[in-house]
Amino acid sequence: SEVKKIAVLPGDGIGPEITQEAVKVLQQVEKEFGFSFSIQYGMIGGGAIDRVGIPLPPETMELCEKSDAVLLGAVGGPDWDSYPPELRPEQALLGIRKGLGLYSNLRPVTLFAGLENSSTLRPEVLAGVDLVVVRELTGGIYFGDKERTTTPEGEVATDLLIYHEFEIERIVRLAFEIARGRKKRVTSVDKANVLESSRLWREVVNRVAKDYPDVQVEHMLVDNCAMQIIRRPATFDVIVTENMFGDILSDEAAILTGSIGMLPSASLGEGTIGLYEPVHGSAPDIAGQGVANPAAAILSAALMLRHSFGYEAAAAAVEQAVRTVFEKGVRTPDLASENQLAVSTEEFGDLVVEELRRTEWPI
Ligand code: NAD
Ligand code: IPM
Ligand code: MN
């Protein structure tokens, strides 16, 4: 079969540790399924700042552009927090998202059997949790004009929250399409009681909904949604929302799965190149210790197999391997209870690889 080109950008903090495990899993998938991946590494974020002075070197962007898919670890950390805005590691991520036109960010929130006991929420609240956050990724307050001025009264700072109708329409339409393949329920989250951009958002949702009479749609204000997500999480199916609300709600929703270390994401858009990354960040507090949970990175690689390459069987195999490892009682420190022995980042990756090896997959 044809060679798939994968750009791997490990990034900062735990980025390299977790990415290594995802690459290991991809390499086992090559063997099991007879695929061929050409993996090339690029620098991004704080590491790139330290080496070449900027967070997103042109050669990294070029590497992404000539690849079929991008796997990213995480960027950022205290070393670079006081850098000027355009020189922050996070700017690299925003630059790739915008540069590749990745306007949709899919963040599936899947609860694996047994992990309901790892969450800080009660297991009975978590029964039946299976939702996906569809986050708009290239608009809103992240990308509107920013300004900083000094006035006689003191400093003034502005971030413009701006949405064009077409930006709302394409992400909302995608959410309805996704709902059709799931439980056929869409919850559109906004702040239409205060924000004009949210009122436009709601109008567009109501219009698009007419094309999907088989999908049930509801509007929910974001503050209420933040509460309902932990009160009755199993009632949600597809949550579609603007950039910053989606950022915040998905970290909250991660706790439904036991840990932020469990949540993968796929960023897709106008072109054919997809970006795959964990929802979590560079976790400077645990970096370099080999204790980070690599599941989110491994599951992001599975999303790459599914959404960029159409390798559904292989994607499902990776997800099944992760599920089986958890079913056997294996826990990384973020998921382990106090008296439970936890495995390291690398041990977890090895166990997933071993599960892939043990099973007979159809080639
Ligand atoms: P974070 O997600 O990095 O960490 C939050 C908490 O979750 C920390 O206690 C951390 O130890 C824990 N955690 C995160 N991932 C984990 C994993 N895989 N296994 C176990 N525990 C895990 O969020 P933060 O501390 O607010 O941000 C740290 C840095 O990461 C900041 O510079 C931020 O800008 C950046 N960040 C980057 C991305 C990205 O690159 N996609 C995403 C979010 C945050
Ligand atoms: C995420 C991160 C990023 C975001 C940051 C690092 C720019 O929090 O991917 O969720 O806010 O989108
Ligand atoms: Mn985030």
UniProtKB/TrEMBL annotation:
Pathway: Amino-acid biosynthesis; L-leucine biosynthesis; L-leucine from 3-methyl-2-oxobutanoate: step 3/4. Its EC number is 1.1.1.85. Its main location: cytoplasm. GO terms for molecular function: 3-isopropylmalate dehydrogenase activity; magnesium ion binding; NAD binding. Keywords: Amino-acid biosynthesis, Branched-chain amino acid biosynthesis, Cytoplasm, Leucine biosynthesis, Magnesium, Manganese, Metal-binding, NAD, Oxidoreductase. Its cofactor is Mn(2+); Mg(2+). NAD(+) binds at G281, S282, A283, P284, D285, I286, A287, G288, Q289, G290, V291, A292, N293. It is found in: Cytoplasm. Residues 5-352 form the Isopropylmalate dehydrogenase-like domain. The record marks Y142, K191 as: Important for catalysis. Substrate binds at R97, R107, R135, D223. SMART domains: Iso_dh (SM01329). The keyword Cell inner membrane does not apply. One of its GO terms (biological process) is L-leucine biosynthetic process. Gene3D superfamilies: Isopropylmalate Dehydrogenase. It holds the Pfam family Iso_dh. It catalyses: (2R,3S)-3-isopropylmalate + NAD(+) = 4-methyl-2-oxopentanoate + CO2 + NADH. The keyword Nucleotidyltransferase does not apply. InterPro entries: IsoCit/isopropylmalate_DH_CS, IsoPropMal-DH-like_dom, Isopropylmalate_DH. Catalyzes the oxidation of 3-carboxy-2-hydroxy-4-methylpentanoate (3-isopropylmalate) to 3-carboxy-4-methyl-2-oxopentanoate. The product decarboxylates to 4-methyl-2 oxopentanoate. Belongs to the isocitrate and isopropylmalate dehydrogenases family. LeuB type 1 subfamily. HAMAP family: LeuB_type1. Homodimer. This is 3-isopropylmalate dehydrogenase.
